[in-house]
Amino acid sequence: MLEELKKRVYEANMLLPKYGLVTFTWGNVSEIDRESGLFVIKPSGVDYDLLTPDDMVVMDLNGNKVEGRYRPSSDTPTHLELYKAFPEIGGIVHTHSSYATSWAQAGRSIPCYGTTHADYIYGEVPCLRCLTKEEIDEAYEENTGHLIVNEFKRMGKDVKAVPAVLCKNHGPFTWGKDAHEAVHNAVVLEEVAKMAYRAETINPRIQPAPQELQDKHYYRKHGVNAYYGQN
Amino acid sequence: MLEELKKRVYEANMLLPKYGLVTFTWGNVSEIDRESGLFVIKPSGVDYDLLTPDDMVVMDLNGNKVEGRYRPSSDTPTHLELYKAFPEIGGIVHTHSSYATSWAQAGRSIPCYGTTHADYIYGEVPCLRCLTKEEIDEAYEENTGHLIVNEFKRMGKDVKAVPAVLCKNHGPFTWGKDAHEAVHNAVVLEEVAKMAYRAETINPRIQPAPQELQDKHYYRKHGVNAYYGQN
Amino acid sequence: MLEELKKRVYEANMLLPKYGLVTFTWGNVSEIDRESGLFVIKPSGVDYDLLTPDDMVVMDLNGNKVEGRYRPSSDTPTHLELYKAFPEIGGIVHTHSSYATSWAQAGRSIPCYGTTHADYIYGEVPCLRCLTKEEIDEAYEENTGHLIVNEFKRMGKDVKAVPAVLCKNHGPFTWGKDAHEAVHNAVVLEEVAKMAYRAETINPRIQPAPQELQDKHYYRKHGVNAYYGQN
Amino acid sequence: MLEELKKRVYEANMLLPKYGLVTFTWGNVSEIDRESGLFVIKPSGVDYDLLTPDDMVVMDLNGNKVEGRYRPSSDTPTHLELYKAFPEIGGIVHTHSSYATSWAQAGRSIPCYGTTHADYIYGEVPCLRCLTKEEIDEAYEENTGHLIVNEFKRMGKDVKAVPAVLCKNHGPFTWGKDAHEAVHNAVVLEEVAKMAYRAETINPRIQPAPQELQDKHYYRKHGVNAYYGQN
């Protein structure tokens, strides 16, 4: 069932250690098949070295396991809420990648300091508040999803233009049109977080890049007038 | 004698260079067989490249070498005191891993700034005082063990919930139910120390993660209501 | 056509991931054949893993593609302006290498703090202003080239003695007598940017290296009295 | 001639890239044969990838090349002065390793913040002044050697107990009883420089490790009462 998708999700998960984004099992990738309304996600706490495509877990959007010998990632309810709220999203990644998580622990959004950031993410990467005790006790992972959804709506942010978020004291989620693009954005986020960290150390009075430069780079790669790459 | 255990301790020692936790011979791992009251530890100052399972040294809890052609690690008396005082501990690691040692050199406990920390360690990683001149002169390594034991008792800390400590101006010790888990915790500690360092640079007015979030993540992975992983 | 040159430019491009200077496709190298007035450059947005010498794009100095199945790098107009203005330059590199880009994002020139810098770059690595909205809208990449040319002329800097520049909120360009030397200088710049970052953290009141030491090291490796190396 | 020594010096040089201490050709190792008064050193500016034992250059203590097809390292006169002044030294290393060089660029001695440092280096790693214009113009590399010799004598430092020095705005030299030990000390210095950098960031009011702890660790590994390792 969904063998192709399981293979793709498996491969996307294996990119996390390849790109240095995870220690042990601290990460997970999923991708959704919009036609069937099923998504495939990594099992919880299984070593990357031991993972196979067959270990992937198939879930429906009501949170029922449809196939798989393992429990799904403990973050599955967060993925599920994002898939339900944002039909533009096809793949989701959660990691504890080092620099992005450090920004999340610091409780700060990552300003757009340059074109590396602007090429992929429009404006700052928002850092959301912590969940309240009530939200944590009631349904931690699901409410993490609700918070991301509500805050993006409140801020008027487009999930296609801002494919990354930081959860305070926790870590990043990224997404994309599929699992592979979501991993790509996780790599971009880590690199952007690293360079923003260093840029602030070099110049404590640093300002974000001018809006016109951000626009230029973002629209050079996205939208109808894009001219970067071969498409 | 204890061939299985020697092999396991050897393999756990070899994980230290694999995870980038040691330079040269700056680290050691041990594991105890509680039935016989014997523990196995790395020999002192032997290159990781040359190490074999047969080089491991078997010690009893009175500090006598029971088997082995080499001298045991110079830190053996510290391991011994921890095994005597804490029956819950089955394996111990000492390294000079870079970020954890930097916190130890700075003389600061590592606050819990996020869920990566809270997933494994309940509350801050304590940094203990230096030994006094008298303690150093009398029995340096043994008194290091006594200090850890006494301070954990004084602070009311449970060694299962806080599997790591920093010795001021020296470096970290970690432990676990066996050698492998102790190494796992050494990796976690280094990652946590790195992200705490960066988070403080990003936000000098940073505060620890809210207690309810720390509790949620710790108890998601530990105790009777744990639901992370496959067990 | 220009098969030798395409091979050399291909190989120089492949050095960027080898030296850790690029993530994904964030970099490009070109080299010019001054006799024919043609230069060869990497195609835009093609994975390094998939690149072959035949994928390289041949351009003339009027900005026309002379050969190649792909679009040239989006930064091609910048390369072109530099080749037109500086006949001493034979190869050009653009990357988003982490430390150099962090200085660019911080909007600061890199002072010469030591002999590693002075061995290759005479005086500071200048960080130029951002383009204006008008310059961006009119012809972003071409005007980036104009800015570099005009600023080097205004500052009286010799492109042979200062083979590197930072574009504010963007990243570095380096150059050399050919593509290979330009890559060499990109590696030097990244290392110099890293050590300047760290040196400022260690000593916030740091001063540039004395002029006589800068001169000694630069002229030990360059000019008629050079005595470093085997030539 | 001195084939054994050339092989050893070659191998010691090849350890520099292995341990990540050099970029390109920025480092050199030598070792002296005290009986013949000849020392062997890396040639100047030759790629590590291309180096063979036969490329090593044999020098006498008057600065004459005795054998070798290449010019010796441009830093040869510094090595020579150290060998002449300090009969205890058998091997010397110069690198631009990143953290040690950053301290040199910052013009600061590295305080002893912990036992990693104290295990190998007794007290701080001194950072010497820059050479004067006169000293540079007269004989730069030779006068670098004189400065190290004179400053160690003035400070009453024993080169066996302090096997490392920083030359301001330049970089480190380390030494040992042979080339291999000198490389070992170069690795130690880089690690110590890195952890001191981080420890100061974590605690800006940090103090050096207590003298009694420094003594304990140094004498645990050195002198008649040493008990670390197998000898």
Automatic annotation (TrEMBL), chains A, B, C, D:
<keyword id="KW-0413">Isomerase</keyword>
<keyword id="KW-0054">Arabinose catabolism</keyword>
<dbReference type="GO" id="GO:0016832">
    <property type="term" value="F:aldehyde-lyase activity"/>
</dbReference>
<dbReference type="GO" id="GO:0008742">
    <property type="term" value="F:L-ribulose-phosphate 4-epimerase activity"/>
</dbReference>
<dbReference type="GO" id="GO:0046872">
    <property type="term" value="F:metal ion binding"/>
</dbReference>
<keyword id="KW-0479">Metal-binding</keyword>
<keyword id="KW-0862">Zinc</keyword>
<dbReference type="Pfam" id="PF00596">
    <property type="entry name" value="Aldolase_II"/>
</dbReference>
<dbReference type="GO" id="GO:0019568">
    <property type="term" value="P:arabinose catabolic process"/>
</dbReference>
<keyword id="KW-0119">Carbohydrate metabolism</keyword>
<dbReference type="InterPro" id="IPR050197">
    <property type="entry name" value="Aldolase_class_II_sugar_metab"/>
</dbReference>
<comment type="similarity">
    <text>Belongs to the aldolase class II family. AraD/FucA subfamily.</text>
</comment>
<comment type="function">
    <text>Involved in the degradation of L-arabinose. Catalyzes the interconversion of L-ribulose 5-phosphate (LRu5P) and D-xylulose 5-phosphate (D-Xu5P) via a retroaldol/aldol mechanism (carbon-carbon bond cleavage analogous to a class II aldolase reaction).</text>
</comment>
<comment type="pathway">
    <text>Carbohydrate degradation; L-arabinose degradation via L-ribulose; D-xylulose 5-phosphate from L-arabinose (bacterial route): step 3/3.</text>
</comment>
<feature type="domain" description="Class II aldolase/adducin N-terminal">
    <location>
        <begin position="7"/>
        <end position="197"/>
    </location>
</feature>
<protein>
    <recommendedName>
        <fullName>L-ribulose-5-phosphate 4-epimerase</fullName>
        <ecNumber>5.1.3.4</ecNumber>
    </recommendedName>
</protein>
<dbReference type="InterPro" id="IPR001303">
    <property type="entry name" value="Aldolase_II/adducin_N"/>
</dbReference>
<dbReference type="GO" id="GO:0005829">
    <property type="term" value="C:cytosol"/>
</dbReference>
<dbReference type="InterPro" id="IPR036409">
    <property type="entry name" value="Aldolase_II/adducin_N_sf"/>
</dbReference>
